[in-house]
Amino acid sequence: MDCKFLIVCSEAIVVPLERKDGGRRGIVSLKGHSSTRIHYKQLPKNLRNAQRSKLPPDFGVNLFLKKPTTEEDPESNENCDGVLEEEQGGGTGCDGEGEETSDLEWESDEIEAISCLFQGRIPQKPGKLSRERPLPLPLPHKIRPLGLPTPKKQVKMASPGIVSSRSSISKQVYKNPTFLVNLAKKIKLLHPDQDVSAVLDDCARFLRKGSLSLTVRELGHMGLPERALQTFCWVQKQPHLFPDDRILCSTVEVLARNHELKVPFDLQKLTAVTSRGVIEAMVRGFIRGGDLKLAWKLLFAAKYCKRILDAGVYAKLVLELGKNPDKHFLAEVLLNDLAEREDLNLTQQDCTAVMKVCVKLGKYDIVESLFKQSGSEPSVVMYTTVIHSRFSAKEYREALAVVWEMETSNCLFDLPAYRVVMKLFVALNDLPRAVRYFSKLKDAGFSPTYDIYKNLATLYMVSGRLAKCRQILKEAEMAGLELDKAIRSQLLLFETETR
């Protein structure tokens, strides 16, 4: 038996250990009561705290399900040489005797859960387990045409306020309506002896071409054509603002509307050398100024010189001429000119205005053609005009079809639409529909007009419902409307006949 002695204090304990070759060797463990401790050499930090992570276990080896063993590894016992007990005997070292561990019994649920962790899938609840992956995005080189670069498109930002705050002052100001209208207000407040340059010189560096056209139009609305002309003269002196057709057209329109534009006698020569935008601005100015005769002459001078103007200019002149019965023949001539044009691009407002004039002139076929050519969804004004046109042409059933079309398209009725529809129901002698639309009119918040009360009272009288007729007449009187004496005399006549 080999023995090793460590002499530190008076008490020693010899522990026999087995050797690898079958022999025995002894280790003396000393237990001292002195205050002196034995400190063994510690491992360096790089070995105590290893930086490299441990290698993963072999693939397919399930360490959790491995059956625990009770036998101690003899090599681990050799590493426990020289381990001392704690001073108070509370700690236990590697004394060569392995602790007995009880066999762990795994339940089937635990085994299944742990095995699923290594299989890479956790059991899901019953349901749809398969996931539908979205289609991959198309590749840019497959979308782009060969040999042609894709143009850059301006992406609309989610918060344009951030973009405007970062942009330059010139970009924020040069087309800002509030800023341009305020310029017109400042020019209006100037002393008559002062020039507009006192206001415009301070903001000249922020302006661009076309900026002051809104200011000139606003000066025209204020009744200041002289200031509008001064503004145009100031723009002419600025090389970065002139030439500009927009401010030129705005100035010409303002001067023509206020009768301040000097026009030569030879209109044909004028239209031959003038741009299309300036001619249209002159016509619009003359129409708004009430000078329809000069606008008529200018249009025919342009037609003589084979200048094609916008159809909206014709529509505005037709609308103004249709208001005067003495000038209806001039409106018919313009309508014939519009009928000859192939590209009749009218806005919905201009188209409705032309249709109203055609109803007055009895041109119901033009109304139908314009209604069919209107590409966009018709408005309530256009529907009302078509119903009135067919009512005037005594095509009541066709007019009723337009009413059903308005209902199916969820078009909200306004008060003029209710007035036309009530006239149609009286012509059809359709009392139930007239009563229903009369109640809908009230539910919509409209107050019935004189003609609506009159038509409904007449319809009740013709149907023999005299009590209802008297009720409608009383309701009209309470609303402040006094119906004519003809209806009252007819009501008395019907009452005497029934008696």
Automatic annotation (TrEMBL):
Region of interest (Disordered), ranges: 67-101, 125-161
Tagged with keyword Transcription regulation: no
InterPro entries recorded: PPR_rpt (IPR002885), TPR-like_helical_dom_sf (IPR011990)
Matches recorded under PROSITE patterns: PPR
Comp. bias (Acidic residues): 71-88
Pfam families membership: PPR_3
Coiled coil location: none
Keyword Repeat on entry: yes
Ranges of the PPR repeats in the UniProt entry: 414-448
UniProtKB keywords: Repeat
Gene3D superfamilies from the UniProt entry: Tetratricopeptide repeat domain
Protein name: Pentatricopeptide repeat-containing protein
Biological source species: Erythroxylum novogranatense
